[in-house]
Amino acid sequence: SFVSMLPRSESPEATDGYYGYFCPLDIKGDPEKTVVEVFLRDFEQAGMDRRLSALEAFARATDAQFPGGAVNVVSSRQYLNMKKKLDEHPLVLDLLLKAAQAAGTDAFFKPIRGGTDGARLTQMGIPTPNVFTGGHNYHSRYEWAGLGEMIAAVQTILELVRLWARRDATAQTPRGGLGV
Fold first, then answer.
1. What is the sign of the dihedral through the CA atoms of 116, 127, 21 and 62?
2. Fewer CB within 10 Å: N-end or C-end of the chain?
3. Using one digit for the tens of pLDDT, what is the confidence trace for 5-19?
4. What is the pTM of this model?
């Protein structure tokens, strides 16, 4: 009953771009207890707050349907949207764009609709934009990667390393240590 209240129009398969979603990932249960794991995704904190409030409302409605039972919503944050943090470090994105161009890649930014290592590292204080890998249909049985795109990704990363190394070499302090 709880899962059926999740709006189908706000599921991963029904949304794209910057529109967030509810994603029920796992349902486990027995006659005594059922646990539903739902991922919430949104690009704005207000959207996340709205989605969490919706889950609370669905829980109360399910409680009302089944007297004697109890539905509890327990939330934990995986990561925050990394854009705001990356905007505080424009050099990171600037060098990434330069590296992609030097590698012969037409770089562009697009929203990532799931959790990434880059998002987690950025939240921990290491600004880490996601770089393409050549992968498609992630986490599905149809996931695949194109060799040409993988090669372009490697070339972009190598160029990025070169750019950071040049930048660090020119920022050396008189004692030979690297400047920040």
1. positive
2. C
3. 999 999 999 998 889
4. 0.73
